[in-house]
Amino acid sequence: MTDPAAGAFLGLPARAILWVLALIAFGLFGWRVAAYIRVLARARPEPRWDQWPARLKRFVLEVLFQRKLLEEPLIGAAHLLIFWAFVFYATSFFWNLLRGLLPFLPIPYADQAAWMAVALELFGAVGLVALVVAAARRYLFPPPRLEQTRDAGIILSLITIVLLSSLTGAGALVLAGEHHAGVGIASLFAGLLSGLGVSPEQGVQLNVAMWWVHMVTVLGFLVYIPYSKHLHLLASPFGVLFGSLKPPMPAASEGAARLEEFTWRQLFSGLACAECGRCDRACPALNSGYPLSPKELMHHVKEMIMASLASGGNGHRLLGDRVKPEAVWACMTCLACIQRCPVGNEHVPVLIELRRRLMADGEIEAHLQEALTNLARYGNSFGQSARNRARWTQGLDFKPKDARKEPVTWLWFTGDYAAYDPRLQPITRAAARLFQRAGLDFGILYEAEQNSGNDARRAGEEGLFETLMEKNLAAFAKARFERIVTTDPHSLHALKNEYQWQNGGVPVVHHTELLWELIRTNRLPLNKRLNGRVTYHDPCYLGRYNGVYEAPRQILRALGVELVEMPRHGSRSYCCGAGGGRIWMEDVPGIQERPAESRVREAAAVGARTLVVACPKDWVMFQDARKTAGLEDKLVVKDIIELVEEATNP
Amino acid sequence: MAGNIWVVADQWQGRLTDITFEALALGREVADAFKVPLEAVLMGHGCASLAEELGCADNVIYAEHPALAEPVPETHARALTELAQQRQPRAIVIPATNTNWGANTLLAAQLGVPGLNFVVDLKAVDGALEARCVLYGGKIQVRVQPRKEPAVIGLWPGARPADQGRSERKPSVEQASVSLAAEPKVRLKRYIEPEAGEVDLTRQDILVAVGRGIQSKDNLELAEELARALGGEICGSRPVVDQGWLPLSRQIGKSGLTVKPKLYLALGISGAPEHVEGMKGSSLIVAVNTDPQAPIFNIAHYGVVADALELAPALAEAVRARKG
Amino acid sequence: MNLVVLMRMVPDVVEELEIAPDGKSLDQEALRLIVSESDDHALEEALLLKERFGGRVTVVAPEAPEVADVLYTAAAKGADRVIQLRGVEPGLGVAAMAEACAAALSAIPDLLPADLVLTGAQSIEDLDGLVAPLVAHRLGWPYLGVVTAVSEVSNGTATVIKEFQAGYRGEFQVSLPAVLGVQAAEKPPRYVPVAKVRAAMKATRIEEFEAPQPVPEPLQDVTIVALAKPEATGRAEMLEGSVEEVAGKLCELLAERGLL
């Protein structure tokens, strides 16, 4: 069998040339990668070395099976095939390189092993087809927010050359009669070559030539990767491996503006980003006209790292120079970007660090300032006396137990909106009546309850979050209860996942989970079947943040209504726009369609008469939106509590 | 001469302000109750002609001095102190306007007597002067009697109708001289005029706010009429601005302005918290809505279940009649 | 510039105000105190002046519940020195307190001479006077109120902007030292994150100063007859009747409040 690396080229031994090229390529590659690692080492630490079984499982699902990319089926399938073709070809490359560089190794070249030749043929062909699909999508039917970059074109071309050169080489060998028939693709190429006038005698030479084209291209690719957006090829598996296993929240810090002030994981997202635009497509801020693009944010992070590599020094700033405060404040922390990202990028933590820095510098807008001041002083964002927190109970014909004074099984944490907003108080009372009807042993903290601090934290006021948390924990410590139920997903998330409970904490559930349990076990008997076509909006903090999708749907099915799903449902739910403290901030001019308006239109479009919600802020946002969108006659907004009460009224 | 009731005239850009006449009306009542003369005190430079309008008083003390041309409270207070020390009035009513702000306190301190603020009413009770003051953002009223004379009263607008203090009668005018520092330590350099067309709603005392209950842009006229009659400005809730009936600069609420006027008249506004958040600090909130369950009634001080489109013109009419 | 800010605690009207059984004061039980809003603006204006012209800002506050919080917050915002005045308590009426404060200002070591004393233009419990002119009177300094900006400071005078009416403002020249009653600072009072206030709690010492004796008795020169609430809080009082009747009732209401 021929050794393509034997022989000479322009008077020099081919093997020597291969050595030189390989050393240069690996040298440049290694040098660049080392430079990235040095930059990351200058950033703050962040431990992501725990829970390896879970991490490995994610790696298998996201990297090996490309699960997130398959959410867009066509390109997902194409990318999966390209990925595996790439894996195979990479393996073959290293095999070939080793054998080429070290001829004394007792192994054949990759394509000289029959089974490998077949695999290369198959993946080559399939890969080429997938590339055509990918190219067609990129150039003929691009989805929104997909940038046409030179990088993308180069990469598609490089991969094409890599695959074609291999297949052509195989075909040349078949033409020369020295190749075992594989699955017919090599033969196809042989036929093409023959048709182009290549003679069998030239076959071997052509094969050798193609081998070199292939190897040099891949060596070039190796150097090109760390200098292009395809750095993601290297970085993304690590991004997934070191991704956050729960909704990411940076540890307490003073915020970040410059490169060194971020953590290595926050910077890493910039390196892993493939600029595919999935985050942008899902972002409610961007799609409403806010000046925030998650993809741009990642790009700025990468750019900042590149600038640091180019010119060194410590002065590279993300905040102000590259990312403007208006963009930073626009985030609703809905997590759609992170949910969609196939490479495990964490956009929201970067924004939260930036917010913390703006907060520390006192650069926050007046509305937010007022809400935070009210939270600090009154324990609620409404600026109302803490003494009025339980006023909503006055409309009940019984007095809920005071958990401060007597032990209860369930502590009900109502949250600010359910307690103070006069439009929501009737729903809160309905929930109380349902709990009572079900014979639940529940109580509330009355004036001792404070805002959970979730949104203050997301607005960047870490100190305020700590204060509120401490006050709540102190109130919890004095009360006696076994479990917590809350009617507010934001509070749910904070209490369940972010509070520093001394003794491990207690189970915390959302009211939909509890209501479903009560209905399921017939402790809350349904007396009436409800009619009508409804659709359900998954709250960000209940769905994406805490994985509760089914309980509310189980309830709706049990109630008898006809549940239709909006296109953006479940983990793809579209935020109402209130999260991240945005409910306390002003709209910016130039907003086209607010997220809540988009959502109510989506609900009306699927023919639902009722939009069912499970979060008080959703209720408020959608009530407002149905007026401004002119849908008052077409759509009503109801909390699931209201429907359950209708169905369980005696 | 001693024991009279004095009312200090307040001027703005060469004219007497409404509160001057309100003070005169009130002063008249008090003077009559104590059976003493009512004297108006006019201070300025070359504004003697204004004295003619102060006929509600029995006579006018006109203090003329170049330094009094500038609206500097401490200069005016110094002049009043001198006059008061000479003439020993029983009470001195000073309109508490921005122009005069602090003058009554300075006067009281210089005379060594108490100076009352936020006074909305005065009366004679068993031979003593009793004032009613509004404190704590309007939440508490205090009835108080000064124990020393003269009683210096900082009068809040609206104590009496201005017309009650106007009179055709020409009062006698007495020129008085006051000695003031040649170089006052506080001087007015110039007035700064507001930008044309710019209305800062956050500085308005009276706002008429419209919501979707106003139903159409054409009906905005009715609200604007009412605003004019009240001497206030129009503003709106979010849906109204979104519809393009009002500019963004007039939006009150979460995405608009936060205002704390003395009167917020909400017409056809449901009271969504995003709106309420922008106006709940208002001293007096009157809400008009056809829906008796509208949440606005939970934060309004007074409510009317009625069609705003009917009430607005009726109210505008009544206000105009009252103001004369 | 050497700037002194006088800050006072007043009842927080967000909470329900109750009248004490004797009808002559507020029920202390129900009271919660908050820094007077325009005093906060006075502090902000002082900090802005410090940023613009350099110098230091000293905050002086009569003792009261929760005043320590206010002083630490002021320090976190940039005040250089914070002083709590003992022996002077806030309450209805300000004349006595203002006198005590003015006496204290002269007595506190290294405080005067100052360029400006700033305090709020008014507060919600200024029954018997305004603090700024009273302090000015005691110190013998010039005074100007309803201030919304201090634009220049040179040659011993300051250019001060004051609000008149209908959007008009006036540019005044005030000889220094002077006392200003600040209506609104040039920018809204800055926000300082809780973390910074906590840091200030550790890094700052609140000086305590005993007010010079004798401290005047509050409300000596007036007799409080009674306190009363003008109307019930909570749900709106609903006005009934025909449109004309209601319009009439509303007019009465507005007139009573001095709004017509």
Report on the structure:
Chain A is elongated. In chain A, strand 6 (483-486), helix 21 and strand 7 form a beta-alpha-beta unit. Chain A has 650 residues and is mainly alpha-helical. Chain A has 26 helices and eleven strands. In chain A, the strands form three sheets. Chain A has a five-stranded parallel beta sheet. Chain A has a four-stranded parallel beta sheet with strand order 9-8-10-11, with helices on both faces. Chain B is an alpha/beta fold and 324 residues long. Chain B folds into two domains: 5-176, HUPs (Rossmann fold), CATH 3.40.50.620; 201-323, TPP-binding domain (Rossmann fold, 3-Layer(aba) Sandwich). In chain B, 25% of the residues lie in helices and 29% in strands. Chain B has eight helices and 17 strands. In chain B, the strands form three sheets. A nine-stranded mixed beta sheet of chain B has the order 9-8-7-10-6-1-4-5-11. Chain C is an alpha/beta fold. Chain C has a single domain (2-210), classed as HUPs (Rossmann fold, 3-Layer(aba) Sandwich). Chain C is 28% helix and 28% strand. Chain C has helices at residues 37-53, 67-77, 95-107, 131-139, 194-203, 243-256, and strands at residues 2-6, 9-11, 33-35, 56-62, 81-86, 116-120, 143-154, 157-163, 169-175, 178-182, 207-210, 222-228, 237-238. In chain C, strands 9-8-7-10-6-1-4-5-11 form a nine-stranded mixed beta sheet, sandwiched between helices. In chain C, strands 2-3 form a two-stranded antiparallel ribbon. Chains in contact: A-B, A-C, B-C. At the B-C interface, helix 3, strand 7, strand 8, strand 9 and strand 12 of B face helix 4, strand 7, strand 8, strand 9 and strand 12 of C.
